[in-house]
């Protein structure tokens, strides 16, 4: 497994340690992958914190640089463990800040994350779209968009959290081609975030193709992924419900890894695992409590695609 091409698979990530995690009633309105809380708040928060800490340890053991920030819960931000929705980073020194659909999630934006990025990495431009919340226009970062950094394509499933106007601005500023489509779960509910059912690695892509009802758009998604030489691995709706699509490829000291939850890995077939392992090592993370909030490994990890200024140490 090669380690030279890291354009799609960053070597560093940002994660937020949740001290007051709980499933968010506000986001449950359009996130069909959430589960109701089944325990006392303190017990739920303690388990989520332990899962997060174990995930950080596993990623660091694999050689990924992990910048960890604490959320003490004082701002009532139950979903802060999912930072990839409010910011993204890009080769060439660009950072995007995004408008969030749920009001409670808008409080997750924090200056110390941006300060860390500017101190340790080359940040040339920050595009701040967050003010569009006042116009009810939303685009929730790399949750709403799954980015092919090689083919320069932004794949986006239509939802309350992905507005076409903001997407057009992003694609103009960052130089991506938008490919927009509808995607629904078996109950006919729109997929709330594209990254729930789609993951793009360097040499493969995981995607719930059958959840795209329009055959023409389904073929476009498959074809555009295959044009860059990727092995397109189709996931079933049941596998998507087990978060098999909510994974992220990273680069460690021994090559590329695919970080995903233990539940997601168990949902993959032997053939699918073999196809992934042709180019990346599977790194399962135990996240049963955090997954109750409707997100999994990918949502927890904000990739850093910026160039380091010098030697970077995790915080």
TrEMBL record:
SUPFAM superfamilies assigned to the protein according to its UniProt record, in alphabetical order: Pentein
Residue runs in coiled coils: none
Family annotation (InterPro entries): Amdntrnsf_FN0238
Record's protein name: Amidinotransferase
Organism: Octadecabacter arcticus 238
């Amino acid at each position: 497994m090669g380690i030279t091409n890291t354009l799609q698979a960053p070597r560093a990530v940002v994660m937020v340690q949740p001290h007051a995690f709980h499933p968010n009633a506000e986001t449950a309105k359009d996130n069909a992958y959430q589960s109701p809380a089944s325990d006392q708040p303190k017990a739920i928060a303690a388990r989520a914190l332990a899962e997060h800490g174990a995930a950080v340890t596993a990623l660091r053991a694999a050689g990924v640089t992990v910048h960890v920030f604490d959320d003490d819960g004082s701002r009532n931000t139950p979903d802060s463990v999912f930072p990839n929705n409010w910011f993204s980073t890009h080769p060439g020194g660009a950072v995007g800040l995004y408008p969030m659909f749920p009001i409670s999630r808008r409080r997750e934006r924090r200056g110390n994350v941006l300060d860390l990025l500017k101190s340790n990495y080359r940040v040339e431009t920050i595009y701040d779209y967050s003010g569009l919340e006042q116009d009810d226009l939303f685009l929730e970062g790399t949750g709403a968009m799954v980015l092919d950094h090689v083919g320069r394509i932004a794949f986006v499933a239509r939802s309350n959290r992905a507005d076409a106007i903001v997407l057009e601005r992003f694609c103009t500023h960052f130089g991506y081609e938008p490919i927009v489509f509808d995607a629904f779960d078996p109950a006919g509910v729109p997929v709330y975030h594209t990254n729930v059912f789609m993951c793009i690695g360097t040499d493969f892509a995981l995607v719930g193709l059958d959840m795209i009802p329009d055959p023409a758009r389904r073929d476009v998604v498959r074809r555009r992924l295959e044009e860059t030489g990727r092995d397109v691995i189709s996931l079933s709706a049941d596998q998507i419900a087990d978060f098999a699509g909510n994974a992220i490829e990273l680069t460690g000291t021994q090559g590329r890894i695919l970080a995903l939850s233990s539940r997601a890995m168990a949902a993959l077939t032997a053939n699918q695992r073999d196809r992934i392992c042709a180019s990346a090592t599977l790194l399962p993370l135990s996240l049963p409590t955090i997954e109750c909030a409707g997100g999994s490994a990918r949502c927890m990890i904000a990739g850093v695609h910026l160039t380091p200024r010098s030697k970077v140490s995790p915080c």
